[in-house]
Amino acid sequence: QLWLSFAPVADTIAQHFLLSTEQVNWLSLVYLVVAIPSGLVAIWILDSVGLRWATILCAWLNFAGSVLRTLPCMLFWIQTPFALLMGGQSLCALAQTLVIFSPAKLAALWFPEHQRATANMVGTMANPLGILLANVLSPALVKKEDDIPIMLGVYIIPAGLACLLATACLWESVPPTPPSAGAAHSNSEKFLDGLKLLVRNKAYVILAVCFGGGVGIFSSFSALLEQVLCANGYSNEFAGLCGALFIVFGILGALALGLYVDRTKRFTEAVKIGFCLTSLVCVAFALAEGVLMMVLLTALTVRRSDPSFSTCQGGQDPLDWKVSMLTMAGLCTLLSCCLVLLFHTPYRRLQAEARSSPSLQDLGSPAANHAPLQQALPPALLGHPQGPSKDAAGAAHS
Question: Which residues cross the membrane (predicted)?
Fold first, then answer.
């Protein structure tokens, strides 16, 4: 939740550290920028050193970043607090790339196929849960500028606890017995070879662009929600409540959807319907003018005022968020159309595991074990001398 800890109280942070609104926004948006180069490094770390050491590295980076953010409040002679704040956020951003990419690998290595979607959903929802806590906790802790050091100190506690647990309690990267046929037959592909397979896979590229765009829209909307609602006269506490409701209903929907796709295996249909519904909600939010639509979308109460421009930051240029919201709705609609119209591919991993023995204890020789997987994968991905790798299978079914 560290990446969004400043956004719900952006106006107070700007006044306390003598920053502009744009600088405060970059304290959250730096996560998206850092994720671009560090994402590839995080994937390599997960594949090369395993889940255990990647998780420990992530926990220590996050803890170091949370401590670095508090230095401007303790060292009063510092003339450029923005540099330390940005440095701390950047370390936390490096840690978050490891966190975001871990759930899928954890689910594939530790859970059987009928539990994989639910396990992936639970791990993935940890990030929105942190956003929920930040939306509630930051406005609750910061009532005035003097409360900012308290807020930064409170956020060190979960980071330190996670660091302690990761260092002391994690012992293995993989279970002693593979939980599924796919996990039993996975062999690591070379990193660059795996990337080449992915970029040549049309279905994967479409899914990556659409899903990546959705994550970017969600992250930007979460970071700027306080300023968007502030333009309509709402307080920081109310904006934080709206962000919390936004996350709560998303978690409930993800829980229901994870259980559904675990039973039905209708992954493609569920993703397409979810994207389309998200686009409709974005359009409605961008065009909402009355009390009824605001209540339906974010469970808001009666609107207090409706000025055209933001008046939250005295002495700064007013901000109009209508164009930004319409742009967000347009991008989300475009991504939904691309996914629905262009993404049509069978889930080859399910096909491979369906042809494999349901019991891992019945698996025979290595050559016999690889045969069902080889029948389900395209010929282009079967050139590896040890059979299809985990990365090749992931590229095929993506």
Answer: 26-46, 53-78, 84-110, 122-142, 148-171, 204-226, 238-261, 273-301, 321-343
Question: Angle, nearest 10°, between helix axes 236-264 and 113-124?
Answer: 170
- Give the range of the structural domain holding residue 2, as residue numbers without chain letter: 1-169
- Burial level of 388, CB count in 10 A (0-12/13-18/19+)? buried
Please give the pLDDT value at position 56.
92
Report the alpha-carbon distance of residue 398 to residue 395 in Å, rounded.
5
- Long-range contact pairs involving 276-280 (C-beta distance under 8 Å, separation at least 24): 276/336, 276/340, 278/214, 278/332, 278/336, 279/329, 279/332, 279/333, 279/335, 279/336
Place of tokens 């992936």: 120
Distances (CA, A) of 107 to 2, 170, 253: 25, 16, 19
For residues 105 and 120, give the distance between their C-alpha atoms in angstroms, rounded to a whole number.
9
What is residue 165's predicted lDDT score, i.e. its pLDDT? 92
Q: Would you mind telling me the total number of residues written for the chain in this entry?
A: 398
* pLDDT over 70 (residue 185): no
- CATH code of 155's domain: 1.20.1250.20
